[in-house]
Sequence to fold (564 residues):
Amino acid sequence: MSDPLSKPVLMSQSLSTKGYLLPEDLIQAPGVPSAQRRQQGPVAVFECVQEIPCNPCEQACEEGAVRVGERITTCPELVAEACTGCAKCVAACPGQAVFVVDESRGELAHVTMPYEFLPLPKKGQRVTALDRSGKVLGPAEIVRVRCSKTMDATATVTMAVPRDWAMLARFFRMDRDQQSSPSSSTSESEQ
Amino acid sequence: MKRRDLIVVGAGPAGLCAAIEAAGQGLDVLVFDENAKPGGQLFKQIHKFFGSKEHRARERGFRIGEQLLQEAADLGVEVVLGAPVIGLYQGLTVQVQIDARIERVRANGVILATGASENMIPFPGWTLPGVIGAGAAQTMANLHGIRPGNDLLMVGCGNVGVVVAYQMLQAGCRVRAMIDAGSNIGGYGVHAAKVARTGVPFHLGHTIVRAEGDARVESATIAQVDNRWQPVPGTEKQLDVDTVCLAVGLSPSIQLAAMAGCRMLHLPEMGGRVPIRRDDCSTSVRGLYVVGDAGGIEEASSAMIQGRLAGMACAMEQGFISPVAGENRLRTLRDSLDRLREGPFGERIRGAEHRIQAVLPPRLEETAPCPTH
Fold:
């Protein structure tokens, strides 16, 4: 029931009608690293393709790997060679649109995502990986959970998935029996 | 009758920023708010703000609210709560109800920051318990820690719809579907994406046909709409929900501006009938300013800048700051507002601003109320 006079931005038909980007929508995006770069180690993926007034990602990056510029509605551009995959931008993004992908680990890829639900998953926990539409991809394992004061309750959770899912897996589901599974490790925290 | 330098009506983000900006220049500022707590919508806003650092991007709304209240207190701003303003005469005489008393206070400047009210859409079953506005859902979950329901249908996919749907997921609700009669999601794609990746389906070109249930909502029926926004027979789908949440737009609260005789303009892109304003938020009534959603629906970041513009303009008008220093500050604030309104999402507001500029007299000299209502 939106105002019929408002003109939404048609960057991606899927995003503007179903609420999620398709992998093909990201091919030309200025903030998405190449497959070659992803295979070299952790790197940020900016799934931010609409011109909204926002630039905390640029300020969060100490390496100068994110460019927005004077006009804050410009979509963030990734300078892939400068990105160290530190994930500071992941927690800083108010739109939760930044991920870190690491395809340098052989069969498994690591996908780091922002997470603002409780309870937080635990390291070692088995979860179900979901794609951008919430569709089930399959089982995955949580390998890292970080939440510090500067992140202000936006945890970053890293999930190990088969490498084919590195650019597909963007969320996960904790099933009840998975939540109650024994796990000795606790969340890492950094101050 | 008491007299103050400035009275601000409404202690939300726009009103508090107006009071802080003016009090910072030495004005004696009194703020009235009808609510029991100040802060307006900020304390429901648990998400991180957009914008740039100057717009307090990546800070959560409720933390910005806490800081504004502290700043206002430090500057000696007097905030009177539980005090609905029920009248505004000659633009600058404020009639307020405090407990059982009605008082009048005269001011040299008045800033209206009365916000907006939620739109509703009627449908069979819309009065059943379980049909709520998005604002109520936020109040329950984010202020009182109460989950509004277990299974929820969100009607409306503008920014309020997608932001509140995500907050309901955080509160532990299952969001069964997001619907909107329009053909596109009106809210930011990033907000929609964080809802979609939890598995919530979006149905564009759909409306709610009815809510079913005896004593409360037990299910809701949705249907596709045709190009005249009428339900298409045979496309009905019943959803098992106990809560229907409406996020179908906001209307500026313009009653006091109308009572004061402000010249108004009907601007659908601003949410309806709004007082025409100059770029410092002054209206056609001398000394009277309108800021935030009361002057046109936008969001909290621009409301805060508008509040500061009006606060500074009042300080200049009353001689608390030199014209040169004041003009510099106004320019900085206008630039900041322009940066927020860039890009395709700001197009609507920029268009409305142009239409207002076109009817605005070069200098607003009117003081007499014009009987347009």
User: Anything to note?
Assistant: The first strand of chain A starts at residue 43 and ends at 46. The helical segments of chain A are 13-18, 35-38, 56-60, 88-92, 176-179. The mean pLDDT of chain A is 89. The radius of gyration of chain A is 17 Å.
